[in-house]
Amino acid sequence: MRSYLEFEKPWADLQGKVQELKAISETGDAAAIGDEIGRLEAKAAHLLSEIYSKLTPWQRTQVARHQDRPHFLDYTKALIDEFTPLAGDRKFAEDAAIMAGLGRFRGRPVAVVGHEKGSDTESRIRHNFGSARPEGYRKATRLMEMADRFDLPVIALVDTAGAYPGIDAEERGQAEAIARSTETSLGLGVPNVAVIIGEGGSGGAIAIAAANRVYMLQHAIYSVSSPEAASSILWHDASHAQEAATNMKITSDDLLRLKVVDAIIEEPVGGAHREPEAVIRATGDTIDAALRELDGASREDIRRMRREKFLAIGRTL
Prior knowledge:
By secondary structure, the protein is of the alpha/beta class. It has helices at residues 9-25, 30-52, 57-64, 72-79, 121-126, 134-149, 167-171, 174-187, 202-209, 227-235, 241-247, 252-257, 276-294, 299-311; strands spanning 80-85, 98-105, 108-115, 154-160, 192-201, 213-217, 221-223, 263-265.
């Protein structure tokens, strides 16, 4: 069953009426009812387009978190051939919140790393809702170092509310692991491309997103902290999350203007979860174009371009 967000309720009500009429048409005057169904479907499509044309930052946050939005494993299944996952950080344990592995992207051997939130209750618990412990970031570091050694481009798919803030994670060096992963990503001599496919929260996101090219899905969010966390810090009350989301400039439009991201990948009306295949295909095309642009660049040029990109962030004039 499809789930609807609160602001989609008027559209959901129309969809419900359409389904009722379709059920009636099977036993009644199908021709007469068909005209009404067509009228309501057109009205629903127009309403959905209108709703999504003026989403607030908080509403975009809800879309970015939608449970049916495609996740890391959906992208790798569609885009990466011969994907071979690698597990463990070789120091403590395996962390399933960050997935990493090797495969072929449109014939090109690559390393792939990203957050996986899970798609049902069991998998969400197994992947800790995409919030990684230090082991996840040390695994990402291990993969990126391997990619650098064997001259493999790195593709990063970001989707996390942030790194796991538990005591056990802090005891095992969460901040250090994030910093090492960020440092490794910034220092790669091979091209790396990152895409914010859902949430990009805090250091848990930048740890694998310090890339030559950073792209963002239209309704994804990317921020120094979640709106709820920022609200708790600034107002000592999480109820100001909507206000925090508005003032933090977390949407793709704001971040493109500030040069935090290089381009926006458009989503279908209604969000990526409405047409996941189309969104994944468009994401693949964007990654492919970016890697082609970086083909032939020397290791020194790769590092220089990445450094210049990050130094230019925020310079809007």
